[in-house]
Amino acid sequence: TSLMGIISAHYSSQLMSQLLSIIGSLAILKAPADFLTNIGSGVFSFFYEPINGLVKGPEEFLQGLEHGTQNLARGIFVGFVRGAANVTDLVTHNLAGLTDDFFVDERNAYHKMMLYGGDYAASNKSIQDSLSIAGACVARGFRSGASGIIEQPSMYASRYGAIGLVKGVGKALVGAVVKPVVGVGDGAVVLMNHVSEATSDKEVVLKIPKRLRRALSAVSSGSSVKISPYDEVSAKAQKIVTGGETVDDAYLGHVQTSTTLFIASSQCLWAIDNKTREPWCIDWAEISNFGFVDGRYMRIDVFSNEGIHSNIYEMSSIQLADLFGLLSMQVEKMGNCSQIGLGFDTSDGSSSSGAMTSKHIPGVKSIQRRHTFGSINKPLKMTTIGITNEKELIRRCRTRVKELDSSMNDYFCRLDEESWLLVNSWGQYF
Known about the structure:
By secondary structure, the protein is of the alpha+beta class. It has helices at residues 2-23, 26-56, 58-96, 101-116, 127-199, 232-242, 317-329, 390-402, 411-429; strands at 217-218, 225-226, 251-256, 260-265, 268-273, 279-283, 287-293, 297-304, 307-314, 344-345, 356-357.
């Protein structure tokens, strides 16, 4: 009972702090302002249209009265709907702050996708498009709330022990309730905005489509860019990562596969599903490693709360090369990624059998000589001096391995020698 009281008091205080920010937000003041604007235009039309028609004749007066009444009703309705959408959006935004950072980042990325991402950002969305977006918002809220019940307690327990387990359970319970509410609220905002836009009497003025700003792809990790013919997909990709020129980020390039659109920016990597349009956005520092798998797949390993998580994507050889080039540009920003070298460094004059590989491996201090593990596996006649049991053999091997240093350029070869020595000795002694 006391434990539940502590948890309830903690989250009650968090909720009160969020309520204060809701009350003090200027978005609350925007709702009555929009409402009064729509009411004002409706009232003006309600009086102006009949008077203007009365000047022309009785029939025009009735038509003006009908049109003015419709505009007044439309203005009141649109004002209420837009006001409700503004308030709902503000409340869900602050409620999302009670959940975990991953859910907030995923929600923000999806909102950015809706605002600036191609078809979703179009002003002429159909009701089916809006229903699809709203359904995705609701599904994402319920899915995240359900998965958090399992993930949050284990994650906090592994980090902070028993106290972390209590905190994780509290986070999971709050998320299980709040995340679906946020998802439903986001879906309601999408539908209310669609209804208000469809009901508004603003005339649609056809304009000549304005071309998006040209995207300049990067050719290296520096500031060099490539000037190429205008490409609409590149321009849209640039608009997504820069948030329509509102986010301090820079477009580097993109790769379009049959299933996924990959976009590389100076801050993060985007992977957008072609069917669901669900965006996956991750900072470069959260990428552990990347590389080819079977010549047909790109594997991208990322850090997660449960350890390293691998994402594998199928693509053509040309797409593999293009995506590999984009990832290689940002390899220095990655948390634990190897710098993939090209060929071998023979500048020290050594022969090809002792050539130095230019691959930098995490945890290894120096560039290593080329070595094929298992190439020294040949039977050796061992002496039994001082070795009486298995533990003594293992202890000696461990002592020799501890004396090795990865700053030696034959570190791999020495490790291979010790491995084979242990296997060969074990077979002879025991």
